[in-house]
Amino acid sequence: LLGGLWESAFYPSVKDASPHVEHSVLGPDGKGHGFNWTMGKHADDPLKAKDKFQVTAVVNTGGMPISVSWRRVATERAPPFGARAPIDSGQELLGRWQYGSKEYSVSLHDGKL
Fold first, then answer.
1. 109, 60 contact by CB (below 8 A)
2. Tens digit of pLDDT for each residue in 60-70?
3. 29 has which bridge partners?
4. I need a surface site. Which of 45, 73, 87, 99 has the fewest CB within 10 A?
5. CA 30, CA 22: separation in Å to the nearest integer?
6. Of 68, 67, 70, 75, nearest to 101 (Cα)?
7. What pLDDT is recorded for position 105?
8. Phi and psi at residue 76, to the nearest 5°
9. Are 64 and 111 contacting, i.e. CB atoms less than 8 angstroms apart?
């Protein structure tokens, strides 16, 4: 969401997008209903309870996202939800959230979210 507004959302060009499905990032606008990035739905993206992921959004020079991907991170690297996340040198934590039993974080590093 740009500025926290659903009318200014970024979303994938296909439903159930993942790093394993070719797609582009669309928006910001209010036309993305039903178009979501989906973890664990693709056969090459299996999930288990308590898996932790790092989500990366690559942005262009204007700060607009041009791709979104994620990777599983070791459980011992991810702190409990609400604790301060370990940030590598040169990174800035932008946000963390939890959905169901999954926890996610977004950080800025070398032009990548």
1. no
2. 888 888 898 88
3. 9
4. 99
5. 22
6. 75
7. 55
8. -70, -20
9. no
